[in-house]
């Protein structure tokens, strides 16, 4: 059989470089996100350090905002950990497979050189009319040629199998990363929508009268500044009543409702909970384990 080892060698060298690029990309993404994680969490912590002593609602707003944003950061970090635990090892696994094929090509080249050397020796034996040596070398050449052909056939089959796995699994590596991003953004959509409504239902103006009394303002009418004692008294009697139910801030919620975020976020999150791409990467890991055994 004719086996072009030069083409296969180039193929292995190209794929080694390609997997180094993939590994570098995902490593940089993970390292960058990991570096930013603590910075972002620390930044959100600064919100709670704002010295607020005049309005309890604002204190609660700062606290809830910080807590939820830090929780989202942790959720994102969990998605980034999946990059480190699944995607980067997948690229490393395929690099090792390429190196294995490169060694097989090297074995094929060695057999080819051995066969050529035997051919030269047989030519010399023929010229010197050494029939016994010529016969022995002829048998050795047949054996060496058969071994060389078998190695070549195995390499072709192995590389075709590798190529089939590579093109499919590379696709799922990319899809798995996209899924990590979707899971984070779907979670963000859900949690930020809930946080929006929670903070919207906290009314700092309730404490305007308390502030005015604290500073002993005698000539100030707090109702001129948005304080509505009847409404806030009603809310204190019915603490479970939301802003939309009470009518306060209803117009400000229209943009959220009109966007459909509240309706779509749950479905998006549910769809992202279970990824079919996890199964694909698990298969890569299984093949890796079998290869190591």
Structure description:
By secondary structure, this protein is mainly alpha-helical. The chain has 9 helices and no strands. Helix 1 (5-48) runs antiparallel to helix 2, helix 2 runs antiparallel to helix 3 and helix 3 packs antiparallel against helix 8 (261-273). The radius of gyration is 35 Å and the shape is rod-shaped.
In short:
With 293 residues, this protein is an all-alpha fold. Helices cover 83% and strands 0% of the residues. The protein has one domain (5-201, 242-292): Up-down Bundle (Substrate Binding Domain Of Dnak, Chain:A, Domain 2).
Helical fraction: over 70%
Q: Class by helix and strand content?
A: mainly alpha
Arithmetic mean pLDDT: 79
- Summed up, the domain count is 1
Report strand %.
Answer: under 5%
Number of helices: 9
SSE layout:
Layout: H1 5-48, H2 56-127, H3 131-200, H4 208-214, H5 229-237, H6 243-246, H7 254-259, H8 261-273, H9 276-292
Keywords:
293 residues; mainly alpha; Substrate Binding Domain Of Dnak, Chain:A, Domain 2; 9 helices; 83% helix
